[in-house]
Specification:
Elements: H1 17-30, H2 47-61, H3 71-87, E1 99-112, E2 115-128, E3 133-139, E4 143-144, H4 147-154, H5 160-167, E5 170-176, H6 196-206, H7 214-226, H8 232-242, E6 249-255, E7 261-268, E8 283-288, E9 295-300, E10 306-316, E11 338-342, E12 345-349
Parallel strand pairs: 5-12
Antiparallel strand pairs: 1-2, 1-10, 2-3, 2-4, 3-5, 6-7, 7-8, 8-9, 9-10, 11-12
Helix pairs in contact: 3-8, 6-8, 7-8
Amino acid sequence: MNGKVTPPPEREFPEMQLQLRKEQLLSSIRADQGRHTLRPWLHRRGALAIAFAALAAAAVAAAILPSSSGGPASASAAIFNRLASRVAAQSWTPGPGQYLYLDTESEWGAFGGGCETRSVERNQIWVGADGSGLDRETKQPGTFTSPADRATCLSMTKEKATLAWNLAARSSDDWYAPNCMAYGQNTDWSRLSSDPQMLLQQIDQRYHSTDPTPSQEFNYIEETLGQGNPPPDVQANIYRAAALIPGVQSLGTVQDHAGRSGLGLSISLSPPAHYGTTAPYGTSEMIFDAQTGEPLGQTDTGQLAGWYVYLHKEIVNQLPTDPPVPLTPACTITGGGTIKQIPGGSVQTGPS
């Protein structure tokens, strides 16, 4: 296998997360020290339900959590490797006429100058074996992170349009003709090495990084898992590559923002060396289902606070509704084509 992989496109699922993370990092570096964001509300369940969930999670986690005394870092590598063997048994490749359905929810900051707002977004995607499908986005109204941020945002006259966009609730259905949907279609997974060390280097190259920090590599792993649909054996190899990242800590059994129990692995966030600062920016945490090895979510704390939860994933036999127009012609280039705006969303097709 060679070391060349197809770079990720500009638009992935969930939409534009990589670019947003870059903007968050740059904005936070420019911001005053001590700024904070409100933690999103974690749905609380009854004490009895939590107790039963904790007992069930403990029974499963006991089979994965290493019993060695090598410390949190070595424990994290062991967990990644054991999760790899479990996730390799899964299969999420749709057959002809079928669709891979994914349902996620997230909250990240939106930045405009010195102004930050936050909103919860839900993304549902149906991607067919032929690269056709539907991407449904629902965004809740945005909120300010504090009274001080509200005052800052409202005082920025040049950012009024951006602010209005970030605060507005909206929804859209974006339809794709065959070969037009990039998600899971635009990467030749066979080019990725099965050697964990080589694979980690390939993932670094995929994000155009020559000297990444451990926290950047951890984020690249999150991006690769969350924005693609690697085959089970490739996903297992990605876990084995993640086991090589230094500084990753085992958190044991934790809860994601949907209240589900899973195994948490965390790393301290830090900016690249050329930014001229080594100040920590919080932590980034990945949460995995102890039974299946699949990602449950991601939680970042500190100045880049935000979260994802992967709510549902299955192979289905049809779209939730018929497309408003015929999804033809097919795109000639994967993820390419022409976008036409329609009421309530858009349609992407190949050249007429």
